[in-house]
Design goal:
434 Repressor (Amino-terminal Domain); Endonuclease, Chain A; DUF5753; DNA binding; Cro/C1-type_HTH; Transcriptional regulator with XRE-family HTH domain; 6-stranded mixed β-sheet; 6 strands; Lambda_DNA-bd_dom_sf
């Protein structure tokens, strides 16, 4: 079953879909539940819970088939997440925790990175070296950071892993984090991961002549299957120093998908990228 965050988002997505399909406005739904319109809005945004009784009343008002209701009843079931962000997971800042849930349940992830290797592809030594030079440095939290990031990496090899695609600037390969041996290990790991059938890594070389400006924008596109009657959930994740943006508006998804497609066309293909990765790895051994 999906994480609590994704269940709420999926339920909101389904409720918005069936309301629009029924030709109803949020104000009408609020009147049917005898509640404020704000509650309906929060439900559809995945920001609130709802009792089974109120959900049944709302779905009947929308004219939803009883068989289709069962999936939404399951999504609405309340499961305690107490302690979920304890222990080493407490290292995740509040604004990043939604991303961890989205990443866990996504079936397709596409990421653009301009300067450093993405966290989900980092080796332990690279993580530790990156942390010691970080402006967010916290020596007491380095072990928790490593453990939490390694737990995230488990999605790469689980029974049904997501399809993951990466476009990395050549800077990610050549910017030295730690000593040359740490970099050689990291580059070798990238080369190994790139051979997995569910992972594609493309490199934007310094010599690329088209669409290179877009590589300066780090972003991640995530697609989470709905398993219901509504469309899949889609998000653009954009991280800054002390916060993050989660975009799900259609125009934002379309704009970043277009940017992704342009960068993908400008980058080296997977085979050529692997050749470059291996070549850079050899240079760290010289």
């Amino acid at each position: 079953m999906a994480t609590p965050t994704v269940r709420r988002l999926q339920l909101g997505n389904e409720l918005r879909h069936v309301r629009q399909k029924a030709g109803r406005e949020q104000a009408e739904a609020a009147a049917a539940l005898d509640c404020g319109i704000g509650k309906i809005s929060r439900l559809e945004l995945g920001q609130g819970g709802i009792s089974k009784g109120d959900l049944k009343l709302l779905l009947e008002f929308y004219g939803v088939d009883p068989q289709e209701m069962q999936w939404m009843f399951e999504l609405a079931r309340t499961r305690s997440s107490r302690g979920r962000w304890g222990d080493y997971r407490a290292v995740f800042p509040e604004w990043f925790r939604m991303y961890v849930d989205l990443e866990t349940d996504a079936e397709n992830i596409r990421q653009v990175q301009g300067e450093i290797v993405p966290g989900i592809l980092q080796t332990e030594s690279y993580m530790r070296s990156l942390h010691t030079s970080s402006v967010r440095r916290d020596d007491e939290g380095v072990d928790a950071l490593v453990s939490s990031r390694q737990e995230r990496q488990q999605i790469l090899t689980r029974d049904k892993p997501p399809t993951m695609s990466f476009i990395l600037s050549e800077s990610c390969l050549r910017r030295q984090i730690g000593n040359v041996w740490i970099m050689r290990e990291q580059i070798d790991h990238l080369a190994e991961v790139a051979l997995q059938t569910n992972i594609a890594i493309q490199v934007m070389p310094f010599t690329a002549e088209t669409s290179t400006g877009g590589i300066s924008y780090d972003f991640t596109l995530l697609q989470i299957p709905s398993h219901g009657i509504a469309a899949d959930l889609e998000f653009v994740y954009i991280e800054c120093f002390d916060d993050a943006r989660y975009l799900d508006a259609k125009d934002a998804i379309s704009a970043y998908t277009t940017l992704w497609n342009r960068l993908q066309a400008a980058a080296l293909g997977p085979k050529e990228s692997l050749d470059l990765i291996r070549s850079v790895g050899k240079q760290y051994s010289e």
